[in-house]
Design a protein that fits this description.
It contains nine helices and twelve strands. The protein has about 325 residues and is of the alpha/beta class. α3 packs parallel to α5 and α4 packs across α5.
Amino acid sequence: MPTLLQAISLTKHYNVESGGLFRRTRTALHAVDGVDLTIKAGETLGLVGESGCGKSTLGRLLIRLIPATGGQVTFDGQEITRLGAKALRAARRSMQIVFQDPFGALNPRMSVEDTIMEPLLIHGVVKAVAAREAVTAMLDKVGLPASARYRFPHEFSGGQRQRIGIARALILRPKFVVLDEPVSALDVSVQAQIVNLLTDLQAELGLTYLFIAHDLGVVKHISTRVAVMYLGKVVEIADKRPLYARPLHPYTQALLASVPVTHPSQRKRGLARKPPLTGDIPTALAPPPGCRFHTRCPHVMPICSAQEPAVRRSGPAHFVACHLITADQDT
């Protein structure tokens, strides 16, 4: 599959001020720190990690919803990091996002029709009459009746509101969609419905997804590949089957070991028997030197606190940043 999006050394730092009235200090919060990422057309890349590790920030950087501090993003052959306002507006027709909170992401004063139709009118794609027809077709695609167009967000359940958000994101027929924890705020039964809907829409419309989540079971179901993020860094990325069957980074192993199992036969390679991680994730205001995971790693070595590990290939399309892993001899 051809590459649709590529990020190189993508970085986002926020300036945080602290101190008293006369002695204020400014510190950089390292939300995303030098991430390299490639997303192929038609795939779903799952992005997992603990809360606060930078997943949502990375998703917003990839579609330039927020400006990057450094690095670059190339989307569909075009470098978008430094695009002007007019060119960026045109590029955004092909890049959309579905947010985590299906209620907060919708304007309570706008009807469903106005909400879904708004992107078409803003970008001048079609006139109002044709836009209304497009809304009817999109409501049908996301499983809502045509009569829903006249109602307002507060009249719908959480799952229905998320369907409205999906319809709004897809009305421009984008190529790439960032799904920022789209099911985490929903009931389990509704989560399955939304995930199946996203899968069907991807096959029908030829979409490419970045699926951000903390539920590893959902990520395994929907993703083609999975990237694991820790404190602003991507520490492992691989096709989902080898990553779930044989995770290489100690942090990935700990994440998978934390997934509840309903029967002992479901435990693979002893991951579920590993002890849980100790300690809290370090602050992004002062990330640890060397490997950022070394303060919690059960296999820490002296080199881990002194030198940042390089991303190495270990097997076909399996990359990991860990001093425990040596480069694949076949590469």
